[in-house]
Amino acid sequence: MRLDLSHIRQPDTSVVRQYEPAAVAGDDDEYRIVAPVSLVFTVHKDQDRFRLVGTVTTRLELVCGRCLEPFALPVQASFDLRFLPRSAGSAPLAAAGDDEDGVEGQDDDVATTFYDDDEIDLGALVREQFYLALPMKPLCRESCKGLCPQCGVNLNTDSCTCSPRWEDPRLSGLKALISERKHDDA
Prior knowledge:
- The protein has four helices and eight strands, in the order ββαββββαββαα.
- By secondary structure, it is of the alpha+beta class.
- Strands 2, 3, 4, 5, 6 and 7 form a six-stranded mixed beta sheet that branches. Strands 1-8 form a two-stranded antiparallel ribbon.
- Residues 89-107 have low confidence and may be disordered.
């Protein structure tokens, strides 16, 4: 899944690619890709600098944070990324980021990255967009009831007879004081 930049001669080049889920999947992903990955973008070329603007579309399978059931999340993530050659691009950026003390500053532009050997790794680009599209807390639906904290049954599909009232065992000493006070009519 590499984009060979040596074949791009025009200032603007459209690219449409489709990948099977196995071609994009990583080893330690928090999701599973369940549909083909469609990658549509335009490459804007300016000498040895490239800008990729487009979208990646697929469906990911996640685990719900409340009921622990798998669910599908449609993804249509837009991106606008700049790519600079590592050998020529890293030194000027470092020199431009130096402050008065001579300490090298960091480039705050997260949309800029580097490429090596006239190739851009599209697999890394796609996986990065998937991680950016993931919700902080994946939920199968907003009204998900989750699991019963006592018996563990999925409250979306079943009901349980557990007592919904929970008492903190650390406060049992205070509860004893309150019950003694009620019985002691002083």
